[in-house]
Design a protein that fits this description.
The chain is about 70% helix and about 5% strand. The chain has 24 helices and 7 strands. Strand 4 and strand 5 form a beta hairpin. Helix 3 runs antiparallel to helix 4, helix 4 runs parallel beside helix 7 and helix 19 packs parallel to helix 21. The chain is elongated.
Length: about 700
């Protein structure tokens, strides 16, 4: 007789844990008469969860659930795994302790709903797969076999995709249980053995250990059903050795180890009954009954062992012992209501009465036996007729179809992206070729000029003027190239922005966002190049500008950017407003660039200081961050155009190496100075001074 031997029949064994339980009850009671307790932290909730598990192990399941409920209601900022643990505890309580499948199903669905993003599904494959298994268990108990197989298969696919053999172990275990009930004992044994092998990747705790001994025992039980007695005894002995090997590690749970041994003893007795070694069978059955008939142990398994013992008495015609055992079992039906046990009991009672020449009384028990047996067979008929292999094949075909469909969609995205890149490449090559021709012509002209300089020293001044004109031509070409590139790249950015609003898969949207981000980065670089060329040649439109207002406007515009990284900008202004003759646009550009750099190179949550000081002959402005700093080897390069000192920001923000060069050009045109202090420990402070 095969029953589920899970890890839920637990007790609290030591006086220390008993004291802990009563202390918890006292705290809960005492708190009802006081001011409501403060919210519980995530760390505090973990301790409560451990305590609730200990109370539950002691058999006080209602108190454990109530205690955990109170803690959950006053907890804040729990992470996903803590919420999942609460749902799982509640699921086990309603499914196993209360046999309330409807409420248990709600918690199973709640566990699944936690995985509402691809990231969570990939990060927590074990928990995600187990949630499907929990739902499948309920569906299976409700005889919804197709839906149950589908849930189990979903769990298996999650484990396979995530390379999580712990999830696959749970799947193999459940397949073994189903195949055993369908009387496919050879396949069941294979699944139990596979589950044990796969379970080595699971975190080894008491739950994993208890499942391990159950899998070994179930393997032996499967072999015993197909009369492979030697194999069955081998696995029973292996299960007992496995328990003994870990008894020191789990010495505080000695009673539960005895429960596991008792189950194995009862199964071993079946082998000796078949071999007609009745004395050995009786010894094992009595040992099993003596262990599991104790309060809090596996009383149902003990009752099955009692029925086997009664059957032995019947075989050996020990009528008095048979009747006494049946009477004991009959009293147990007040709290043990297993249909198969009642069926066997009625059959044995009928046979006892036949031997006592009381056929009229026996017929009543035979009828009850037939009725119960018909009910059991009717329930098992649908399960036995279900072709699980065919169901799995169908699910695998459906999964393969979905995979091919996703691959096709992915290939379409790749094709579209390739077309975009090819078009963009052709445009870039065309532009490069045209500009190469222009550059070739300019190089030739420069060569002629150099030759003229070497040949005619008397015309040096004219040659220098010509060289200056060529330099201006170079800037014009650079601006032309940048301008010509900006239009097609801007078009690509706009196109991908529109495409990202269409109905694509998450993976496709990720690729479109990558194109869009790259396009916007390219546009930012082009704008930097245009600003660099303009700053070197353009004049300044100076005017009287109130410096406090200019700084305040710059900071306020960038607070939103800082808020994206949870940063704070502190602004210290002059006590007395001060006006300077400067270019409002250019100086605003410098200040904004320095603050943007501070945001870019500071970690999330950092504080950035912007301060202005009124000195005797100048106004000094500083921007201080607590970021990654500038290494010594790069300090001499930060103001160079297209410097190699550029680095990504703390969250991967792009840097082109032009901003500080532009800032230096602008400040020098104002007859000011710009400099910095920096180290990799405390961050960087940029200073700029402007004459009054």
């Amino acid at each position: 007789m095969f029953k589920y031997k899970g890890i839920y029949h637990k007790r609290l064994y030591s006086n220390l844990l008993k004291k802990l339980f009563f202390a918890c009850i006292y705290i809960v009671f005492f708190s009802c008469n006081r001011t409501p307790a403060p919210f519980l932290s995530p760390a505090g909730f973990n301790k409560v969860l451990d305590t609730a598990n200990s109370i539950n192990d002691n058999g006080k399941k209602d108190q454990a659930m109530h205690y955990l409920d109170l803690a959950y209601q006053r907890s804040k900022n729990l992470n996903m795994l803590q919420t999942y643990s609460y749902y799982r505890f509640s699921y086990n309580y309603f499914y196993y302790a209360k046999a309330d499948k409807n409420t248990a199903m709600l918690y199973a669905d709640s566990m699944l709903n936690l995985f509402d993003s691809p990231d969570k599904k990939l990060k927590y494959t074990t928990e995600y797969g187990q949630a499907y298994f929990y739902k499948g268990d309920i569906l299976f108990d409700e005889d919804k076999y197709n839906e149950a197989y589908e849930a189990f298969y979903h769990g298996k696919v999650i484990g396979s995709n995530g390379l999580d053999e712990c999830v696959l172990s749970d799947y193999s275990y459940r397949m073994g249980m189903i195949l055993y009930k369908q009387e496919h004992y050879q396949l069941a044994a294979s699944n139990f053995k596979n589950s044990f092998k796969e379970s080595v990747t699971c975190t080894f705790n008491f739950s994993a250990f208890y499942r391990g001994q159950e899998l070994i025992n179930n393997t032996g039980l499967s072999y015993s059903k197909i009369n492979m007695q030697d194999s069955a005894l081998y696995f029973y002995d292996k299960a007992l050795r496995y328990i003994d090997d870990h008894k020191k590690q789990y010495s505080d749970r000695r009673e539960l180890l005895d429960v596991a041994r008792g189950v194995v003893y009862g199964n071993q007795a079946d082998i000796y009954i078949d071999q007609k070694n009745y004395d050995q069978a009786k010894t094992l059955l009595k040992k099993s009954i003596g262990i599991n008939l104790q309060k809090g142990n596996d009383n149902q398994d003990a009752q099955y062992s009692e029925l086997k013992l009664a059957a032995l008495y019947n075989i050996q015609n020990q009528a008095d012992s048979l009747l006494n055992t049946l009477n004991v079992i009959n009293k147990q039906f007040e709290h043990l209501n297993e249909v198969e046990a009642k069926s066997d009991w009625n059959n044995l009672m009928a046979e006892y009465l036949i031997k006592k020449n009381k056929p009229d009384e026996a017929i009543k028990y035979f009828k009850q036996y037939d009725a119960l047996k018909d009910s059991i067979n009717k329930k098992n008929k649908t399960l036995k007729e279900a072709d699980i292999a065919e169901q799995i094949k169908r699910l695998e075909k459906d999964n393969e179809f979905d995979r091919l469909k996703k691959n096709n969609q992915q290939q379409n995205v790749y094709l579209n992206v390739t077309v975009v890149f090819v078009v963009m490449l052709i445009m870039i090559i065309s532009l490069v070729f045209l500009n190469w021709q222009k550059s070739k012509k300019n190089i030739k002209t420069l060569g002629g000029l150099n030759q003229q300089i070497n040949d005619q020293n008397t015309h040096l001044e004219d040659a220098l003027d010509e060289l200056k004109l060529n330099s201006q031509e170079k800037d014009r070409i650079l601006r032309t190239v940048a301008h010509d590139l900006r239009n097609p790249i801007g078009g690509i950015a706009s196109l991908t922005t529109v495409m990202s609003e269409d109905d694509y898969t998450d993976e496709q949207k990720e690729m479109l966002n990558l194109i869009k981000e790259t396009s916007f980065n390219s546009l930012e670089l082009i704008n930097e190049i245009l600003e660099a060329t303009n700053s070197s040649n353009a004049g300044l439109n100076k005017e009287q500008v109130e410096i406090n207002g200019l700084l305040n406007n710059s900071v306020e515009l960038l607070r939103f950017k800082a808020a994206e990284k949870h940063q704070v900008i502190n602004l210290h202004l002059l006590d007395t407003p001060q006006e300077l003759m400067i270019s409002r646009e250019k100086i605003w550009r410098v200040i904004s660039n320095l603050i943007s750099n501070a945001i870019k190179f500071s970690p999330a949550g950092a504080v950035i200081l912007v301060k202005v000081e009124d000195l005797e002959r100048e106004i000094k402005i500083l921007v201080k961050d607590h970021g990654i700093g500038i290494p010594d080897k790069l300090k001499g390069q930060v103001f160079n155009m297209f410097t190699d000192a550029k680095r990504p920001g703390t969250e991967g923000e792009k840097s082109f190496g032009l901003g500080l060069s532009i800032c230096q050009q602008i400040i020098e045109k104002h007859n000011g100075r710009i400099w910095f202090d920096s180290d990799t420990q405390t961050g960087t402070t940029f200073y700029l001074s402007l004459p009054k």
